[in-house]
Amino acid sequence: VVVSAGGTREPLDPVRFLGNRSSGKQGYALARTAAARGARVTLLAANAALPDPAGVDVVPVGTAVELREAVLRAAADADAVVMAAAVADFRPATYAGGKIKKQDGQEPAPIALVRNPDILAEVSGSRARSGQVVVGFAAETDDVLANGRTKLKRKGCDLLVVNEVGERKTFGAEENEAVILGADGSETSVAHGPKEALAETVWDLVAERLGRTDPSLH
Prior knowledge:
Layout: E1 2-6, E2 10-13, E3 16-18, H1 25-36, E4 42-46, E5 57-61, H2 64-74, E6 80-83, E7 90-92, E8 113-115, H3 119-125, E9 133-140, H4 144-155, E10 159-164, E11 175-182, E12 187-194, H5 195-210
Parallel strand pairs: 1-4, 1-6, 4-5, 6-9, 9-10
Antiparallel strand pairs: 2-3, 7-8, 10-11, 11-12
């Protein structure tokens, strides 16, 4: 299985970047849980300052473009791909080779942004293997379930883990709560608790969809 974790960073100049608050803890919990269940796990870690999980192949990445390349490469022989990383939707259109300096009495120039690749939609739309299960994450601040259902349909994944985020919610916390929406119309609520508990439920649902007869992931 392939798991992405953390948050991508899109450089503006050598010292600044456009990023997000993701710590990578949920993705790491997913990787540890899968490894404990007997899966061969590749963890694509985007700027996560966390210890490598035992028995997991960790691949560090920085930007959304780097993460896309790593996901497509790792997904080629994966039974499941779980995109738990918070991927920046946009990146600066221009990278400044030197630090952008303050100019006395002048406001800074506007920063133009361009769209990053939609990795989840790409992986969902062109499955590398027949029967591959793809799981996405949706971090929402309002109309959580409505926005989640819209995103599930738009992205084309099998499962979408939807949770509410904010300055003190989910990002960086040890606990999480979520609703896991299925493309088959299913809806599984996971009560507030350790991120490992959410990871267990995600892998239960993945295993059901894989229809495995061997003990891996069960």
